[in-house]
Amino acid sequence: MNSIKLIKFNLPIDGTRVKNIEELRNHFTIEIIDIYHNGMLSKWLRSRNMIEELTALEDICIDSSDHFSLLKKLCAIFKIEADDMIISSALGVPLEKTEKNFSEIKAQYRAIIHEELKSEFDAKIKKYTDSSRSLNYKNGIVTDKKKKLRWKQDSEEGRYTWDEAMAKFGKNINFSGYDDWRIPTIEELETLVDGKYFPYVDRVGFISHYRQYGARSERFHL
User: Which range has highest mean pLDDT (33-37, 102-106, 111-115, 122-126)?
Assistant: First the structure.
């Protein structure tokens, strides 16, 4: 069975009809956008057996209304030297109003946020690292003499809402001779941070939690 032979034709653009890529580059104008949308460009590439350019063309996934991104992509496919300013000028659109690459902006934003958070975290670690702190471990209690806090060395694992935590641990807790254990404040929890270790908690006093990457000491005694 004989297949239908593709008929070669010249591509109408810029008032002429081009036969090859070189001629297309010489007559490349914003008309290429309409020629792309009406399918003529892909038919021309297929008839001329320009597989590389055709494949790149078919891989374009850009909103039809985003002429800036589309023209930029077509310039790349056909190796047309044009920066954002030239493309904006050709379209008659101010550069600051052109569509931006959302994924690129998101990646840049995440990188900035990551660095800010890392700097903030490092500053906190430096603040709470205190080589002179003195912790004692006895009878299941970690005593921080400098901060005048006592922590339950081993505590019940789990996640709780504030109301659940208050109902379970907020009162009537007796342990190791003390009956006034309570839930710590955020500021008091921060005193457990020790930048000499990873995770950032004393690995001797809270060894069971260290193995699970984090302390969950829910009780302490003033």
Answer: 33-37
One-letter-per-residue 3-state SS of 74-89: HHHHCCCCCCHHHHHH
The angle at the Cα of 46, spanning 33 to 74, to the nearest 5 degrees, equals 30
- What phi-psi label fits residue 209: left (phi over 0), alpha (psi between -120 and 50 degrees) or beta? alpha
Question: What is residue 150's three-state secondary structure?
Answer: strand
Residues 6+ apart with CB under 8 A from 143: 135, 136, 137, 149, 150, 151
Token code pair at residue 194:
């020790």
How many CA atoms, within 13 angstroms, populate the side-chain half-sphere of residue 209? 24
* pLDDT tens column, 139-188: 778 888 777 888 877 766 677 787 888 777 777 777 777 877 888 887 88
Residue type, 77: I
Q: Is 9 helix (H, G, I), strand (E, B) or coil?
A: coil
State how far the Cα of 13 lies from the Cα of 27, in Å rounded to an integer.
7
Cα 84 → chain centroid: 25
- Locate 128 and state its tokens: 């709470």
pTM of the complete model beyond 0.85: no
User: What are the DSSP calls for 10-55, one per residue?
Assistant: PEEETTEEE-SHHHHHHT--THHHHHHHTTHHHHHHHHTT-HHHHH
Q: Per mean pLDDT, which range of 39-43, 86-90, 180-184 is the poorest? A: 180-184
